[in-house]
Amino acid sequence: MTQTSSATVLKGKPVADKLLGELQAAIPGLASRAGRPPGLAAVLVGEDPASQVYVRLKEKKANELGIATFDHRLPAGTPQRDLEALIGKLNADPAVDGILVQLPLPEQIKEEQVLRRVALEKDVDVFHPENFGLLALKQGVLKPCTPAGVIEILKHYEIGISGKRVVMIGRSKIVGLPLALLLLHENATMTICHSRTRDIPAVAREADIVIAAMGKARFVTADMVREGAVVVDVGINRVGEKLVGDCDYEALLPKVSAITPVPGGVGPMTIAMLMVNTVRAFRLHAFPEEIL
Amino acid sequence: MTQTSSATVLKGKPVADKLLGELQAAIPGLASRAGRPPGLAAVLVGEDPASQVYVRLKEKKANELGIATFDHRLPAGTPQRDLEALIGKLNADPAVDGILVQLPLPEQIKEEQVLRRVALEKDVDVFHPENFGLLALKQGVLKPCTPAGVIEILKHYEIGISGKRVVMIGRSKIVGLPLALLLLHENATMTICHSRTRDIPAVAREADIVIAAMGKARFVTADMVREGAVVVDVGINRVGEKLVGDCDYEALLPKVSAITPVPGGVGPMTIAMLMVNTVRAFRLHAFPEEIL
Hints:
- The structure is a homodimer.
- By secondary structure, chain A is an alpha/beta fold.
- Chain A has helices spanning 13-34, 49-65, 80-92, 111-115, 129-136, 145-156, 176-185, 200-204, 249-252, 267-286; strands spanning 8-9, 39-45, 68-74, 98-101, 165-169, 189-193, 209-212, 230-233, 237-239, 242-244, 258-259.
- In chain A, helix 2 links the parallel strand 2 (39-45) and strand 3.
């Protein structure tokens, strides 16, 4: 079958650029009213090369927008109490609006305990369990970055969510579960699949929108989606020299109505949403009397 | 078609009685070691007759088991600060292990703010957003009463959950959503339907287990479930003089393999799980060094 694909390629960059442009336009006025710029503290423990790259990218983007960054690098052997003490100081620092603790943390650190130390209103990654609960209960003011980025992409490309059958493959704490909750709040009829699901292809074929977020290279194949479905690929896997998603993009393209590429799909949204959260936290911090 | 039903009637009372019997056997020894009995404080604001009945039933059951109860009745016009001050006192009271704030609260009270005042470790109803977040993240030590009661019923009657397709109809904060999360943790392939779902019957027919929790009398009819499915009815609706569930029990009985009746199904589990949570909170409070 030769067929010219009419699928919409759901690129993240235009969506991210639009959001970042809005922030860039708003920040000088906000900073001048507040008498200070928004501030983002990044905490990196150890020397993981990928983590170093991520932190650098986040700080660079922040600085481009006029967000001040506070860079804290701790040695890999840092004890729990020192890391928690640093977070305590950042919680109390009036120049800091957002705190990001780059994961993964070294083995000796109890990650859950660290994430619970971050002040709720500075938790721009939305990793604190109370913020997760508020998210689940639809009461949160900050939304987790990658999941919120997926919602932004769907809205930008005018892909309706309400009443749609959405199948999430994956249930991680950082993507699958919080994104399923956000989609449920957008009135999706929400199904969550995972490693213990008996027949993922059959379930995925019921979906109007399939979200792949289980971290297996090219797991979602053309036979697993309905003709005309929308596919969102949140996976990033290294295969040899190449970065590939959780979906077999080339095979899916002729069958679907829209699909996010990897790279260039959901990826650019994560940093953009971190910037959105930082500016939101700044506004709540600097102008608490204003309703956002 | 005349057919003798072979459906298992999933009665809650034997399950509740078993759990309550275990508590009753364990409490004297625990109380003697702790030098005090477990303590449950009940806070009731206003004179809602149904709420008065619920609180009385909970206190009666607690007392039968050897749990001390502390009864706090406040007038309907109680201001927010007085209610929060009382909760603050109960949080600090070493004789109190569990605090239940009977809902609904009067109009002038900000319910969310009150529920966030309850100490995490005394939140036996699991209404605090941080406990909700911990539940969602599978890190909670207390589980919400009615949802946990449903899991207990399924386990008691040896109805497997792992890998099953479970369809939840309803997404309330007290039942639908937390129960969906617990079922997901039990490795169900979980679908959540609600008022904006396009074709609830078609979705429900995919399920091995259907959970009805939307509060509409006899909403789930025989054509909405697959032959041999399991049906759990969490609804309680008053129709004239009668209490009926969200399911058309008589019509479903010949078609399903198992079904909870209303009343007598999930109902008895809620108070039983509140007692389980109170004793669990007591143990964590009195013997913090013991791993539960």
